[in-house]
Design brief:
Jelly Rolls; alpha+beta; DNA-binding; 2 domains; 7 helices; cNMP-bd_dom_sf (chains A, B); homodimer; 198 residues; HTH_CRP (chains A, B); 12 strands
Chain lengths: 198, 198
DNA sequence: GTCGGTTTATGACTCAAATCATAAAGCAAA
DNA sequence: TTTGCTTTATGATTTGAGTCATAAACCGAC
């Protein structure tokens, strides 16, 4: 999102996290801009009885957690390392300075926020009013269309566990497993040793 | 969001719509920036069997429908006039010119997008994993905290119909009616001739 | 190779919200 | 003040996803 040179010239630090590490918690006050160098990070909420909802999964070059930075609000969700990862970390004042000085960066931020808003609009409509199979197909197609999914000879391989799909769509694992099988039967997707292809 | 002077100096037009008018449709290509002068506009989706999901309701001074403008994507939802209203309408190229020339405006856009993203994060987590009463209370509290809700002696009056609350939370009207009554019984809210107060 | 943890799988059962039906109350316009 | 439409209300019934239980398949570490 923001180039390495620009980040480093503004004294961004590199910081390593190991799988499972909590980068920040829901309810905390944001103080930093984060951008992924390597690895994956998820933002998620846990409801009263521990069930998880995944707001999004982020990959290298993507940033996360900026919105409340601009609003002086508390984080609405947790950020957790999905795998070992390395991040650029830039303090809030330096980050704001950076975007004020650089029109291109602020345009990039706008596009980034617009993109996430688009995803959330699409999924919110799905989650609130569509059946499990429909929701899952939308998630899969959205992932293919807008995320980094390499096409193989069997089709696009969806690199999400059933549990992750469940947490992204607000369903239970068992429901996802059953819906995925139903979709295979309808020839909407293929399952090749447990991986979903489309 | 963007000042009247700035909009008019960039040749924005004023356009009137009457209650129920469709301002743009899901699937269309965005060509304009819209900002409300008076009245209210909702953005919503309709699922396969006609059920509505309300993405958001927008009031005077607020803009809507920009995200896909920045992404060259199709509108993910419909925009419909909730009441008679008047809007500023600015063509895409002129709008992009305006924000490029004006750092303050682009910062305002960022804040606006961040705000909507925050709302969507909160509601997505609710809708996907909380009970009806919890969802409704969150919607109500969010509305009070972040939208224009005047405090009266009975508390904050929530100016949403039961149907709108249903369409905002992904519930059915009957469920909302019952949950609202349950919340009254628990003294979380008051109902004074059918209006909800908190 | 074996062990332990994760992921996928499947059946039986439950239950809360959706659905369906019906009507009262409120409100705006004729 | 009557008419027609919207909004709120309430009971009965259905249903599909959630829950619970159990296990097989897979995978990485030792």
């Amino acid at each position: 999102m923001i180039t390495e040179e620009l980040l480093e010239s503004h004294q961004a630090l590199r910081k390593k996290y190991t799988k499972g590490d909590i980068i920040f918690r829901e309810g905390e006050l944001p103080n930093h801009y984060f951008q992924i160098i390597s690895g994956e990070v998820k933002m998620c909420n846990f409801n009263d009885d521990g069930r998880e909802f995944i707001q999004g999964i982020f990959s290298p070059k993507q940033s996360f957690g900026e919105p409340p930075l601009f609003l002086n609000r508390l984080y609405p969700a947790n950020a957790i390392a999905v795998s070992d990862c390395e991040l650029f970390v830039l303090s809030k004042p330096l980050f704001l300075k950076l975007i004020n000085e650089n029109a291109l960066v602020s345009m990039a931020i706008i596009e980034n926020l617009a993109q996430r808003l688009h995803y959330k609009s699409v999924m919110a409509a799905e989650i609130s009013s569509q059946e499990p199979e429909h929701r899952l197909l939308k998630l899969i197609d959205y992932s293919i269309r807008f995320f980094k999914i390499e096409k193989e000879k069997e089709g696009h391989r969806i690199d999400l566990t059933r549990q992750q799909m469940a947490d992204l769509t607000g369903l239970r694992v068992e429901t996802v497993i059953r819906a995925i099988k139903a979709l295979e039967k309808k020839n909407e997707i293929k399952i090749i040793n447990r991986k979903v292809f489309r």
